[in-house]
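Office hours follow-up: a student asked to see two folded examples consecutively, so here they are.
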Amino acid sequence: MNIQIKRFSRDRSDQNSIFKYTIPDGLTLLQGLQYIKSSIDPTLSFGAGCRSGICGICSVRVNGKEQLSCSYIPNDGDLVEPLAYHETKRDLIVDRDRAKDTLKASTAWLHDSIETATITIADEKRTELQSDCILCSSCYSACPVFAVNPNFLGPFALTRVYRYTADPREGDIKSSIDAIQHNGIWDCTLCGECTAVCPQGIDPKMDITMLRSTSSQYGYMDPNFSTMSFGFDPNSGF
């Protein structure tokens, strides 16, 4: 089986080139990358951790779609690339710091914990899935908003915000909502690309929709509405 890998290195003359390799059938992509490194090209660089779909370190793009390489079974001719909207450090390894900084910018934590709050099983189940995020950056890489707004807070940060605004222990929901109005929920196009690539089955699109609903309860609305005509003709009055 042949796979293609888009490689990058600042100290190599062909900084962005596609290399073709032959690997045995039946391997996961991560096993294939390890085979290449041990048997063909020891200079290949890629990320790996738990090897069981838990840590998210091995996420890459395959044929334009984000995948965990430890879980993905490659097909002949696959093109493997580093995650989009991340600085590539070398080959398939990217710098994830900027993506994770969105958690700070969105203040995705409890702002005012209510120690006497009672949490029911239903409360726990409501945000159980959101708590399973492994910060693999797949949703960040798949989000088209970053192509036009690199300061967008992004799917996994907004999902984390929803997780805490829905927590009965949060005594200051407004602070969370205030923090996601700029470069946040209204910048999302609700395209669902983040939902499609999440290996944990999380639905950031729905979480952002819920945050928009909560925002309206605190007096916020989509700022884009002010620039929409809705077919109104100021000359005719209609």
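And the second, which I mentioned at the end of office hours:
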Amino acid sequence: MHACARLLPVACVLLTTATARASEHPSLAETYRDQASQIVGAALTSDHAYSRLSELCDGIGHRLSGSKQLELAVEWAAASMRADGLDVRLQPVRVPHWVRGRESAEMVEPRLMPLSMLGLGGSVGTPKRGITAPVVAVSSWDMLDSLPDSALRGKIVLYDVPFTTYGETVKFRGNGASRAATRGAVAVLVRSVGPTSLRTPHTGSLRYEEDKVAGDNAAGGNLAADNVAANRIPAAAVTIEDATMLHRLLDQGHTVRVRLQMEAKKHPDVLSHNVIGELRGRERPEEVVLLGGHLDSWDVGQGAHDDGGGCILAMEAVRIIHQLGLRPRRTLRVVLWTNEENGLRGANAYRDSLGSAVRNHVAAIEADMGVERLAGFGVRVEHDTSDVASRERHVNAVARAREIGTLLAGLGGDRITEDGGGADIGPLMKLGVPGLAHRTIGERYFEWHHTPADMLDKVDALELRKHVAAMAVMAFVLADMPARLDDP
């Protein structure tokens, strides 16, 4: 018998047990209906969230790690939460400081045409006069691997890979430069990771393979020679339109040559901060329900959906709870992480600061999928399916979250799935903290994600209010209910 088949009876017993326990007591929805109504009413009748998001996006703008704008956002967030009546502190974090500089790409053969591009975060730059080389196009790792080194040496590799899912397609952005460099390529162009575009390139991080890296481009010396020796080659994203055009020309038998110029450079790490604001619990202040998003963004657009909106949801949720005079049993803690986009330094620093106190984290909610129409929450306790105890914790957490979810039906947020998680709460979840992911329909998120188009005009003010309401209800009940989320 397959292992999964053997475990089905166990799962059924756990689910039945959880359901039976729930039927013995008033449901969480019944217990918290009045408070939820207050919270929803306050959120839906306030434009404070949109005004605050405008302050962040229009007033400060994009917020890349190491930039002055990110530190302005840190100061703004701390001052805003202090004005809301929260206890606020800044947690120091050393973060990477990569600067894009001027950059351009153009096709020079078979005709002259500028290409719409964005250098990938962390990329090295080109020599001062740029790199001009023939293009070789591939659409998969297998296609790359099938080519002899002689076909790639001295070439610019174009990864023209159609979008399937973000998790699958982003691998070419993350690993494409190193894999091409080992075969002798001098640069890479990556088709933007998204389903569609209007000639809007998508940036994002790449990773140079550590075992092939001899230094970084901030070390001085001969930049071009140092990078070649270290197998670090420049990498940029081009639009879907330009990638497919280049590929078509190659398929038609044309020689395609591109000139790439990038001033990208990595500087020494600089000081940044996680911003932490708390509404202290009335009975069990040592126990914490965490909610947050990442304050940094890429250096294009405004980071409105990724992840300004997520930060605002967390800030506004706790502001409204406090404004209504609702003080839960446990502490509500807003964490606005720094450096999610190109390092996760903030998430790791927060985890490392906890020590054994991580056990006091009842749940961690992350909002980092934009603020399109609300869908609900994903919930997960990391577990081994063969371990009955850890599986029971997961089942309990999902069952309780689904009870809370019924309070969100009027907002369209009652879909509770078993797939919670996120980049910034991932380090906590690995230590056993139940993780919740704020979910949207995700219909257009990857059209704007990491592009110059991720600006405030893409955010619907009414939908933002619904998100705040849902986040506030979920966080309040998790912090106030007698049992912990994953308790038996």
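Two things to take away from it. The chain has two domains: 3-97+269-480, 101-263. The longest strand covers residues 265-279.
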